[in-house]
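Tokens as discussed.
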């Protein structure tokens, strides 16, 4: 008799099978990407100016700053 145990833990689907443990984060990725699934948002390829700091640029407001940090933290967790 094969026993399969599956548990969802902090965004990771852990499935314990006969001789291995499978780790799947598709659910976490799907939930993470939901807010970005907006047809009005267009993907643009990066260029050399993408990561340049512009002198005199205004800092993000608190709401956008919190969203940015949260997004980066989630991507780090995913990776």
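Sequence:
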């Amino acid at each position: 008799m094969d026993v399969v145990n599956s548990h969802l833990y902090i965004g990771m689907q852990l499935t314990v099978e006969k001789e291995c443990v499978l780790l799947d984060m598709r659910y976490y990725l799907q939930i993470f990407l939901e807010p970005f699934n907006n047809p009005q948002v267009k993907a643009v390829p990066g260029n050399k100016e993408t990561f340049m700091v512009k002198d005199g640029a205004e800092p993000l407001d608190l709401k956008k700053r919190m969203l940015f940090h949260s997004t980066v933290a989630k991507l780090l967790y995913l990776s």
